[in-house]
Amino acid sequence: QVHLVESGGGLVQPGGSLRLSCAASGSIFSINVMGWYRRAPGKQRELVAHIISGGGTYYADSVKGRFTISRDTAKNTVYLQMNSLKPEDTAVYFCYVVTNGGYWGQGTQVTVSS
Q1: Dihedral angle sign, alpha carbons of residues 78, 27, 54, 103
Q2: Helix, strand, coil shares of the chain as percentages rounded to 5?
Q3: Which of 19, 34, 36, 90 is least enclosed, having the fewest CB within 10 Å?
Q4: What SS3 state is found at 73?
């Protein structure tokens, strides 16, 4: 079993920044993918960004140039640095990890509002 603990969400004004963290623990052999989805009210779940074991990254067009995903492999932790936040970034952000199976975090609320 793998457990994911997210942190870093909150309320921020437009143009502000937040950093999300997701730490994986448990029966982890090797991590293939770590990333973030988000679900905004009334919208479908959206893949925000992910990073694969070789270091390659993917970003949704809506966040390119503003968000940066990174990881600390020694700590099995993935980060999402979010800059220049917009109201449309408001959503619940979910961490996910693909290792010996797929696992999801509990979600953390990000609200961008003045």
Answers
A1: negative
A2: 5, 55, 40
A3: 19
A4: helix
